[in-house]
Amino acid sequence: MRTGLINDVVELTSEQFKFKVSENAKNIFRKTIDELDDRQKFQAVAYAVKDVIIDEWIATHRVYDKKDVKTVYYLSMEFLMGRALGNIIINLSCRDEIKKAIKELGLDINVIEDQEPDAALGNGGLGRLAACFLDSLATLGYPAYGCGIRYKYGFFQQKIEDGYQKEVPEDWLRYGNPLEVRRDEYACEVKFGGYTRTFTDENGRSHFTQDGYQSIRAIPYDLPIVGYSNNVVNTLRIWDAEPLVSFNLDEFDKGDYHAAVEQENLAKTITEVLYPNDNHMSGKELRLKQQYFFISASVQTAVKKYMDKHKDIKKLHEKVVFQMNDTHPTLTVAELMRILMDVYMLEWDEAWEVTTKCVAYTNHTIMSEALEKWPIELFSRLLPRCYQIIEEINRRFCISIEEKYPGDRGKVERMAIIYDGQVKMAHLAIAAGFSVNGVARLHTEILKNQELKDFYEMMPEKFNNKTNGITQRRFLLHANPLLAEWVTGKIGDEWITNLSHIKELEVYADDRKCQKEFMNIKYKNKKRLAEYIKKHNGIDVDPRSIFDVQVKRLHEYKRQLLNILHVMYLYNEIKEHPEKEFYPRTFVFGAKAAAGYKIAKLTIKLINSVADVINNDASIEGKLKVVFIEDYKVSNAEIIFAAADVSEQISTASKEASGTGNMKFMLNGALTLGTMDGANVEIVEEVGEENAFIFGLSSDEVINYEQNGGYDPMKIFNEDMDVRKVLMQLINGFYAPDDPERFRDIYNSLLNTKSTDVADRYFILKDFRAYIEAQKAVEEAYKDEKRWAKSAILNVANAGKFSSDRTIEEYVKDIWKLKKVKVEV
Ligand SMILES: *Cc1c(COP(=O)(O)O)cnc(C)c1O
């Protein structure tokens, strides 16, 4: 098929692969394959797969080098990768040989894949987006690095005990990571604290150096990102921290024992743990250290790599572009300025020109509690030179605002980078970035017309939209093999690398035979999830019931509370009208709450309490089941999406920037029950309103209420007896007989303006009636199997737009300007 020097790679036979695995068993574990336990089998196979990848990895970078390509550095505090092995195998050209070998060795590929811990280096959507982007970049053949942090403990493991969430550290590296490569040769130094010293040289030029600092050694670990059947292997480079010298004897001799220990402690803590906040700023000093740590290391390395081949630092932007995933990596701006001026001796204007051509910013949220602001005191103490640079950027930026809007003090106050004792990272990112993008059309419009209105008016050319996407390789091909095979059987396999082809399924939506095939696959996937639930929750759920699923981070704006209040309402209805026809329904929840987010954690307890009562009430004859899936993460998400009938996307309109869970559900043939928020708007546009269930306030209405101090939920409480009954059950012990006050805070968040500044800030009661009606429409629609099957198939067929391949092509064309590369092995 292919020829070349390293042809044993692509023409790998199953015999060769088997040999690799048995050699690994011997070398690593001193055992034969039969003697290995499951985890060891995973490792023996994973090392063999790594061996297969390595030559392509080297070949890819040889091509990048030779062609002197422009490279995107995707900078992100989070990469929610999930498991690697299964995904790598399906992407490799030699997947069939590997699968054959595994079978011939008497191993079960599913059992082996199940041994791998998730790489949970992220919280939710933002981190998973970064992971999908890496998959798409490699598959499309674009030169790219992901740059991040090698957290020792990823996102915590969630245990449910007595209905409450308990956080358990996730020691994902306990047995090592077979797929990573430590690259000591690229280690570099990152400096914290101290003070800047200024001196003027004989030519009158000012120079700045940092003195009295603490140093950390940043050490990169590379993970392979395998493109689909194209021999491309890109790199996710995650940084670990070590003390510069393991115990600083010099300092010890000088009697500065304390300083030496401190430096060692800083190294130990900096990459210790991922902050578990989603859409929320914690303001912790260590977090800012993490940010500078990985940004300094990544930017230094990128500039060094460029200068190894090129002479003119002023043309950096021709070969390098930094994409900042939210404001977390915004220190890129200051660090690049610092390197250009202090190391490469550029003048301010020259450095600014290069920097502003190299950095681009993606905005992920408009919620004020998520906006990054750092106190000047902390910032300047930790990063004195960067702070000095940002002060100067701010000074010049404020002048440019005044020039454009003479006399308008409000403009300067609203747009300044440093104001009111704080450094505003989004303002820095916008002032310095050549591109500012939102992540769904509605979100970008809200940015332009509301949140970032001043910035948009001053520099409209920077603003653009890139609607998020997901990789169909993981979320259909890998997660739902039955449906993937069915799709390929109907329309061929081009959808795997070009999801727009999936539109060709549309002609089968009305075909009765195809509908039955589709519903049968859905049934099998529901059985697979039912087995998972039986094993993990001990609950029996009927795969013939409607699987109504809400899985995502627990957040008030995502409104899991609306969902569970509706379940409580349904339960009341069934109890009051047992004679009424009711189509059996299984409500599935999965969500982690940030460890310090009280009301979110209480909501988990409420869901589990409601589940306990309902699941154990024999009188309702199993019409309703409620399941809370513990430890929602990428690996069990893959099972959940495939099994869903209904996709709950019910955020308060205007709050969810995009959502990507909504896209995974759609691609797996679930119908969206949602508000006109984030990418739901575009999903409905693609699939047609008749194939989704849309309800609730519009974003304009929500924003309008907010600008006028909210609305009065008491009126609804007083007038709607169904709502009233459900709310009373929060405080009369119905779901908490041992402690009737348990859910008081939830009740108060909806009604009581004394305990919260705004009652029902997320418009749960306001949308409640509309949600009940939409849920009734879901039930009616499901009863008509033909109609449902048609809608479900149409959802799959119209998911083409939501491939991250499409998103990446847009980034490349409008922002990054990269060229595709071909790798022949
Ligand atoms: C896709 C995904 C998310 C994001 O879900 P949303 O519904 O868009 O918030 C979060 N966590 C995991 C594990 C995911 O796979």
TrEMBL record:
The keyword Secreted does not apply. Its cofactor is pyridoxal 5'-phosphate. PANTHER family: GLYCOGEN PHOSPHORYLASE, GLYCOGEN PHOSPHORYLASE, LIVER FORM. GO terms for biological process: glycogen catabolic process. It comes from Eubacterium uniforme. CDD domains: GT35_Glycogen_Phosphorylase. The modification N6-(pyridoxal phosphate)lysine is found at residue 664. Belongs to the glycogen phosphorylase family. This is Alpha-1,4 glucan phosphorylase.
